[in-house]
Write a structure and sequence with these properties.
alpha/beta, 7-stranded parallel beta sheet, 7 helices, 10 strands, binds 2-phosphoglycolic acid
């Protein structure tokens, strides 16, 4: 695991967007798995701008959404579907054959999980995964206590996830379960970037980097990834020993 520290959120997002764009240039059929949320929002904007400005052929890469709130329709502005449509698919006019998101309204959520697992295996794995970190240390909906080897699965959401998650919605919503790519896939991903910014994330970043590796704090798994990178701004890194 390596730590990359940036002056601020803009620099952190710019680096990540450039890294993804260069990866698509170098390997046009690469597979990108990304989280939605406040943290990667600017990265998405900068990425779509850069791909267009540099006239990169992005017609062959595959996009995989990290997770989704179970029971929410894609039209809900707080859903991951909505986020990716607005931030990536529409600006780039991606072909629907290029992106894969969990259908969280499916009657067969387990089937959705095996479908996603087959897609990932069929593409020979994920090249780059971009994730955020929750206030309970979750990554995607790999909640405290999650297995370090699970593939795609359905998760009972932790109380912190349910309360912090309200920020994505215009009105209070009942959140219960999530569907997510698991840590088995994260560990097999060639490069994983965990991004965090702001003082709000300083405590969880300290635990991720300096705490013990434990299922009760899921992001600590990053310490075991040979190509795991923690990308932080100065505020998120403020409590680290070597800052
Ligand atoms: P955020 O979410 O990027 O909106 O802070 C992070 C997460 O809960 O994974």
């Amino acid at each position: 695991m390596q730590i990359l520290s940036f002056k601020n959120y803009e620099k952190l997002s710019g680096y990540t967007a450039d890294f993804i764009a260069d990866s698509i240039k170098n390997k046009p059929n690469m597979v990108l798995c990304m989280a939605s949320g406040s943290t990667p929002a600017l990265t998405c904007d900068l990425l779509t701008q850069k791909l267009k400005k540099d006239k990169v052929d992005y017609s062959k890469f595959t996009f995989i959404g990290l997770d989704e709130w179970v029971g929410l329709p894609p039209t809900n502005t707080g859903s991951c579907h909505y986020f990716f449509h607005k931030k990536i698919f529409e600006p780039l006019q991606l072909s629907p054959s290029q992106y894969f998101l969990f259908n969280a309204l499916s009657d067969d959520l387990k089937g959705e999980c095996s479908k996603m697992d087959k897609i990932i295996t069929g593409k020979a794995g994920i090249d780059i995964m971009i994730v955020g970190i929750g206030m309970n240390g979750h990554i995607g909906f790999n909640e405290p206590g999650s297995s370090f080897s699970a593939l795609s699965h359905i998760a009972e959401l932790d109380e912190i996830t349910k309360s912090v998650g309200q920020k994505y919605f215009n009105e209070p919503v009942q959140l219960g379960k999530g569907i997510t790519i698991g840590f088995g896939h994260l560990m097999n991903t060639k490069k994983v970037f965990l991004m965090a910014n702001g003082t709000r994330k300083a405590e969880v970043i300290k635990k991720t980097i300096e705490g013990p590796v434990t299922k009760s704090f899921p992001a600590s798994i990053m310490q075991q990834h040979a190509n795991g990178f923690i990308l932080i701004d100065e505020e998120a890194g403020a409590l680290l020993k070597n800052q």
